[in-house]
## 1
Amino acid sequence: MAMRVSVPDASWLDSLNDLGLGLDLLVWDTQGPQPDGDLDLVVWPYTLDPSAMASVDTSRVGVIQGQSLGFDGVAENLPAGGVFCNAIGVHEESTAELAVTLALASARRLDVFADQQSRGEWVKTFTSSLIDKRVLLLGIGGIGGEIVKRLDGFGCELIRVGTSARDDERGHVHATSELPQLLPRADVVIVAVPLTEQTTGLIDDDFLGALPDDAIVVNVARGKVADTDAVLRALPRIRFASDVFDPEPLPDDHPLWAAKNVIITPHVGGMTSAMRPRIEKVVHRQVRALAAGEEPINVAVRT
């Protein structure tokens, strides 16, 4: 019997038909009623909140393939018996690219120059640079590893921080327990940690208070990694450039919009031209694995 696969929109149909596996394909955006019968694989919409998974009848679904790297909220919402796979290898490079972009934009004061442009003002000023600066990278997983690659050649001193101290092929990794000693010497801090109980609220008053004046904090992790009120209290003494926020999306009247020394991007780290080809490859690999009777790839949550 042919594998039955649902996709979030019709643009996926040709891509999966090209596999030549004789799949039984149907479009289900997961917003309407679940299709009758069993589904071997459900390709979940990219930007849909995990709370929508609460209505999935997992007894009739084999595997849910997400299009995001993160999976916070899935375990809390996916009914018992569900299997959720995340999109490893899809967003790491693009998110790393944005992390470096935010660091450079904040250092070179593109926020100030954009404001001047909107007023038609030509005002020259010296800015910071990544050259000769000490950059603290928190998180050395997939995204962190790609950030390391992209910082090569920028002339900065890179200090990596992981859960525990260790040495690898790139040198020494400091432990998070060393942050009180590391933060006062950091010019730039890039945060790319997963959201866990330990990292929730990591960027708090103590964290920010330990930084020197005019330090740059870049957050491409998750919004809840930063205590938003603590960030507001630290501004404008430090600079904050972030792609993720708590709450998210930011309300229209949120004080961060008008705060000085802030650059905001609306959680678009993975939303580039590179995403679609990469997520299609992941889905293709998943389909082939399931068709061969193998275990699903990239299992992140089993409920």
## 2
Amino acid sequence: MTFLKRRTALAALGAVAAATVAGTAMAQTVTLRLHQMLPQQATIPARALVPWAQKVEADSGGRIKVQLFHAMQLGGAPPQLFDQARDGVVDLTWTVLGYTPGRFPKTEVFELPFMSGDPVASSRAIQEYVEKFAADEFKDVKLIAVHTHGPGLFHSKTPITGLESLRGMKVRGGSRIINNMLVKLGATPVGMPVPAVTDALTKGTIDATTIPWEVTPSLKVTELVKNHTTFAGKEGLYTQTFAFSMNRASYEKLPPDLKAVIDKNSGIETAALFGRAMEEGDKAGRDIAVKAGNNIVALDIQETQRWRRTASTVETDWINEVKGKGIDGAKLAAEARALIAKHSR
């Protein structure tokens, strides 16, 4: 074989090898493990996480499989979920940011009393807000999306018809901001992750809980209490913030085309997907309470204004606290409200 022929043959073999490697890379399939705290039938698993996983699988031509683990099946406690994604214990987690107090100080502005009530607008808003003002709080993960739930309200064993009826009542709160608000309103806050609410109501550890309508069916709240207190206006008493996160190394080792699939299913439209799930879940949860004949207390504008005035010092406390961390809380609160208004329908 001449030198030229030998070189041509070697080049051809190299091309075949390169094509084989490229083809193998293109054909690579991965399984991502997703861990979260709620039962499979709850709103976010059923209406957001499962549809997200199905879309990622479809968009990847079946090359990304998402294996879902519900109700803390892989161990640990809900406050550990964010770190499970960060540390690579699992590939993906969905969790409540307020379960790790003080860790996301800029993001928790969305938890301030009467900040929002539309879960779609507020989820779009918090996604844009984090990208602009709080990306550093999520630098250790690949952030898929952040979002909020709908209007927060009370679910109680005895009716809450005004501020006076809340005094001394043991009420579950889901974050330090919410617990501070409960103190200002005269209640005794009892902090706990949402999966613990059912047992706490059953045993009498708490007299009431703050949660949105959407999670009441999976926690059987409308069976355990018969009173629900809502507020006048479009804003709820409070909202909580959530993060859907991916382990950064799990993301980085994906081939470029599969990274593109994850990127396509991250960001503001994914945040809106979670917001819509919350909105649909709120309607379903409220309908169950209505059909059960439960007592739904709708506070009027005057009474709601009393709650607003009493709870307003929570924002002042937060602004003063984060100032010590070099954060301009007043500016961030204004930015959050402006973004909510921008995305409101």
